[in-house]
């Protein structure tokens, strides 16, 4: 723990992340830290997800000083936790940072905060205060972010709703800073109306005259019957609506791919493709008519692009977009997914209402606010 009266010059701020979503949302923070006088930015990645993480590091030109490279095929949550904790222990002792930044709700997030706590290092939690209220949904993310919240010194909450969640958990008001979501910072720097995809199949879609549905589905809790319902509903939507076209970048999880191909393969106007890097994916979101997803991050990104989102889950830890009207929770039952999607495709007023809703996740200056708050925190230390 840092003692009062000590002058820190430079401040050593270590950002820890391990997955693609974390990297996307931490990239603007890392870049802001790098260009800020009086701060030494150190990046440590666990590489909980290797290939997808590397794509983002390359896109944003981030070169980690430390790379634990912990990913192994078929890894369990316990294995990720143990390998990350042991690796981070060594790095923290070597760097001795003044603050560790973790993001969101992955296993790397929780373990990064825990390792910091064990070494009595200040912890900043980016994207703090999200809660679904169900410890097993999303799993294990809900508990990861809740536990991280108990360990953090500074809580960077994207919205006032997130701040209220933290206050209900007796987090000190002065330790919570409402910043907006850093994903908007990243997104606005990536989307380009003239963007050309590497995949011809994406360049050849008639986005002006077709109602393109972007589908993503990969969550653990949706494996099995829920995912079968989702894909069956999508198949029926396409068969009923001749102007509908689906693009589905399929997650690398073999279980997801098996269900997807068994139901959707060879369906007309359904394009099953491999996962996309962040830049083409962001630009595909921008071209889509509507997005169906069980992802958390997309619920934040799509509103910034004016795209209606149908959430393929039974609850969300991002209620702000639901309240704003740009996100609708449709669950995992086939009939509800079909009916809601069909209505959105064919009811112009319903579509306009969702597409024109105000984005509740910020103005693209979250990273600036986070770095400013960190510097303020250490002024009196």
Automatic annotation (TrEMBL):
Keyword line: Isomerase
Keyword Isomerase: yes
CDD domains from the UniProt entry: GTB_UDP-GlcNAc_2-Epimerase
SUPFAM superfamilies linked: UDP-Glycosyltransferase/glycogen phosphorylase (SSF53756)
One GO MF term: UDP-N-acetylglucosamine 2-epimerase activity
Transmembrane domains' residue ranges: none
Uppermost EC category: isomerase
Residue ranges of domain UDP-N-acetylglucosamine 2-epimerase in the record: 31-375
EC number annotated for this UniProt entry: 5.1.3.14
Family: Belongs to the UDP-N-acetylglucosamine 2-epimerase family.
PANTHER family: UDP-N-ACETYLGLUCOSAMINE 2-EPIMERASE
Name of the featured protein: UDP-N-acetylglucosamine 2-epimerase (non-hydrolyzing)
Lineage of source species: Bacteria, Bacillati, Bacillota, Clostridia, Peptostreptococcales
């Amino acid at each position: 723990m840092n003692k009062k009266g000590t002058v820190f010059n430079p401040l050593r701020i270590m950002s820890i992340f391990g997955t693609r979503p974390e990297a996307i949302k931490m990239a603007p923070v890392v870049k802001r830290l790098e260009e800020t006088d009086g701060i030494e930015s150190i990046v440590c990645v666990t590489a909980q997800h290797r290939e997808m993480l590397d794509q983002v590091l390359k896109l944003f030109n981030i070169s980690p000083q430390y790379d634990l490279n912990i990913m192994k095929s078929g890894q369990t949550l316990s294995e990720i936790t143990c390998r990350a904790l042991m690796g981070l222990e060594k790095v923290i002792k070597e760097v001795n940072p003044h603050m560790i930044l973790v993001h969101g709700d992955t296993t790397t997030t929780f373990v990064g905060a825990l390792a910091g706590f064990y070494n009595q290092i200040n912890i900043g939690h980016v994207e703090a205060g999200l809660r679904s209220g169900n410890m097993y949904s999303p799993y294990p993310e809900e508990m990861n972010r809740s536990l991280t919240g108990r360990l953090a010194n500074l809580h960077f909450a994207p919205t006032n709703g997130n701040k209220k969640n933290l206050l209900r958990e007796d987090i000190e008001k002065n330790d919570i800073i409402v910043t907006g979501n850093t994903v908007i910072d990243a997104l606005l720097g990536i989307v380009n109306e003239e963007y050309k995809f590497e995949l011809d199949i994406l360049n050849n879609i008639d986005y002006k005259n077709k109602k393109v549905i972007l589908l993503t589905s990969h969550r653990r809790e949706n494996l099995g019957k829920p995912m079968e319902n989702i894909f069956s509903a999508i198949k029926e939507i396409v068969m009923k609506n001749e102007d509908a076209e689906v693009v589905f970048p399929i997650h690398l999880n073999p279980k997801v791919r098996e269900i997807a191909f068994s139901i959707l393969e060879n369906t007309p106007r359904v394009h099953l493709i491999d996962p996309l890097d962040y830049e083409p994916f962001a630009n595909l979101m921008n071209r889509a008519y509507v997005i169906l997803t069980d992802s958390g991050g997309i619920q934040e990104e799509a509103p910034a692009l004016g795209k209606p989102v149908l959430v393929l889950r039974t609850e969300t830890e991002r209620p702000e977009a639901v309240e704003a009207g740009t996100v609708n929770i449709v669950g995992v039952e086939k009939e509800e997914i079909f009916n809601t999607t069909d209505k959105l495709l064919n009811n112009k007023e319903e579509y306009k209402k969702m597409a024109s809703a105000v984005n509740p996740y910020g103005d693209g200056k979250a990273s600036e606010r986070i770095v400013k708050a960190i510097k303020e925190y250490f002024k009196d230390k």
